[in-house]
Prior knowledge:
Blueprint: H1 9-43, H2 47-97
Amino acid sequence: MSMIVKVTTEELKKASGEIKTQLDKVRAEFSEIENVMSKTSVYWQSEAADVHRNRFNDKKEDISEAIARLNEQIEDLEKMAGIYEAAERTNISAAASLPSDVIS
């Protein structure tokens, strides 16, 4: 099954910008959570606290990887937009160089 998606390069750039903004917010929030979690060892000392912090640390790498993959998606959208814009410029240039008196 094939699917054709029609979108302008401006829409690709806009979408990547919006995703980047949201991803930056996620990064900042996650950084704040990491900061808070690291400080809990000062006032929360117990076996339960250690389990909680260990579980967070186990998930931290997964979350960081997910954020990195999302960032790759942003880069891919921006690359796609650039490729399409370059191809469009090439097509316009090629069309402009064609003789205009071939079809009458």
